[in-house]
Amino acid sequence: MGIGIRQFTNDTFNQYLPQREELGNAGFRSAVMHEVVNMFGISVESAATHYNFSLKQARIDNPASVKDLGRPVGKKGGRKPIHTVDVIKVKTGEIVATGISKGAAEQLIMTATAKKKAKLAIKVDAPDSEVTV
Asked: What is the spatial distance between Cα 7 and Cα 99, in angstroms, rounded to a whole number?
């Protein structure tokens, strides 16, 4: 069994990262996506999805290496999360991230677990108690 598409995209992303300045941001993105399209015979749109996943992972693993790559945080389109959550440290209750989507929170928790960092969880507010008279 061969390497999976996500792992291949992550590896290709990291392989081209040292050439990013030379290629330019758009050229870097194009080079990574081109490799993925050729390897797996997928559409450019699908390759873009996998590229974006690799970019998100790189922002978690080594933010300095992908500084100024992609759209600025305030300029991102797409749907805004309707229901947001907070992520806390389990031991202390300290808030680590606030107002993020549940998917982003789960990714943050998984990454912290994989890196053996402090145990994180999604903050759950106690339901309002019902008072009857």
From this structure: 29
